[in-house]
Amino acid sequence: MLHCRPMLNTLEYLDLHSNKLNGLIDPIQEPNLVLFNLPFLDLSFNNLSGNIKSCMLVKLRNLSLLDLSHNNLLSLTSCNYGANSTLPMIIWFHFSSCNMQRFPSFLNASKYLQLLDLSNNQIHRSITKWEAEGWENLTTLNLFMNFLISVEKIPGKHLYFLELSSNSLPGPLPTPPQNLSFLLISNNELVGEIPSKICNLSFLSVLDLSKNKLGGTIPDCFGTFGNKLSMILRTLNLNGNQLEGSIPQSLKICFNLEVLDLGNNNINDTFPYWLDTLTNLEVLVLRSNRFHGGIQNFNRTFSFRNLQMIDLSRNEFTGHIPPELFENLKSMKDIQVDESGPEYIGGDYYQDSAIIKMKGSDFKLERFLTSFTVIDFSSNHFKGSIPKEVGELNSLIVLNFSHNRLAGNIPPSLGKMTALESLDLSSNKLQGKIPVQLTIPLANHFDTFSNDSFDGNSGLCGFPLSKKCGNNQELESSPSTVADDSETTLVWKIAAMGYGSGLVLGLSMGYIVFTTGKPHWLVKMIKRNPQERGRIHQNGRRKN
């Protein structure tokens, strides 16, 4: 792969990431290859194969950044180490998706190590106490999707990002370092209650404990201990546990909260209308719990103005759906897509994914666009009519009111929802003709809906149902109606996002997304002397 040997002794920066390189990696490990002064080596996202000999890696004594991640045919082979078998200057070590089966012991004495990414490998073991004590300067640890069975001690007293999701960790929640900003331990076997000491993490921005077996109640301390955490917490994801009780009202002073996902638990409470004080809230998921009662008492001026996803499905809510709710959902109206590129809820440092039902099928959004909008009130006991104000949400993409007790006619205003991709009004008590506004022009999304979108409403008739209305006069539109229809002709758009198979609507936080472009601060740092390189660079952290 490399043939310019005379020049390699002065090489400082070798970045070949995201190419189509293939073949064996052995040539860079030749004993006479002069790469030993190289500080920066990035061969990630290629198709390289072969064994990487750890005894050859440790000869790169000046290496500060090594990224061999996402070369799925690579493997790491251990050697017999000597007393100095380490990478003394390593700061960033990426070895994600490379079939690694154990921790690289040559990193144990790497006292300057700040970022360690061993995600998506096959590590079957524990994090021992002696390993944890060797990385005092570690700030980012990503062990997502391995087979870890225990954590004796979480390494790094300066750690601010910890990703342990999708492992096999049992027992109670491990005690995390107090400087953490991101704590992600979803999809494990954690049991017991969420300890109140979690609230001692006064810098915590993202907490994801979803898909475990945690029980008890949600700690009441999130918004009650000095307001520091309440001003920083942005994501709280407890989906898929066995939590009971009610939602603590202390959360209403977590003013920067953007994502609250409490779905798939046993929470028994009324609708937390007091959350409308959280003006930054974008995602609210309460699905599959035991919520009951009505959802009234909205403040008409400020309620949920930034909400882009609300999922109340599979609960026991009753009463009418309040029209004022839809008047206040400003983020579902007239969304302007940024031409500079898509933006995602969660930013660049972690990944949001949403599993939703659209057009009768299940899809998984690998990343949640800020322009993606969802309302799911299905499988409750709502009654009364569908508020005509729903039609004002012209940026709404998914609307699901199915399996309720809604009655009356479908409001013609739904024809103004020009971004709508999925509509489900099935299994209600709706009646009358499906408004002609929903079927003009014939090339829009509504004419692609099957009977399933309206099925289970014995009183409905007209296109796209196979059931015709009672008389031909009802099928015709008056001249004024036709004129109105021509003014509201819809141009249907397909949302720009990737789909994959999945289940029904539910939000889950996932692993860190390491960007392939390395920050300028690190590139500059590796050119400095060894004493300067060892310092912790706080400006490498995520900006709020």
Automatic annotation (TrEMBL):
The chain crosses the membrane at residues 490-514. GO terms for cellular component: plasma membrane. Its main location: membrane. It is found in: Cell membrane. It is a single-pass type I membrane protein. Keywords: Cell membrane, Glycoprotein, Leucine-rich repeat, Membrane, Phosphoprotein, Receptor, Repeat, Signal, Transmembrane, Transmembrane helix. The keyword Cell wall biogenesis/degradation does not apply. The keyword Glycoprotein applies. PANTHER family: RECEPTOR-LIKE PROTEIN 12 (PTHR27004:SF452), RECEPTOR-LIKE PROTEIN 12 ISOFORM X1 (PTHR27004). Belongs to the RLP family. This is Receptor-like protein 9DC3.
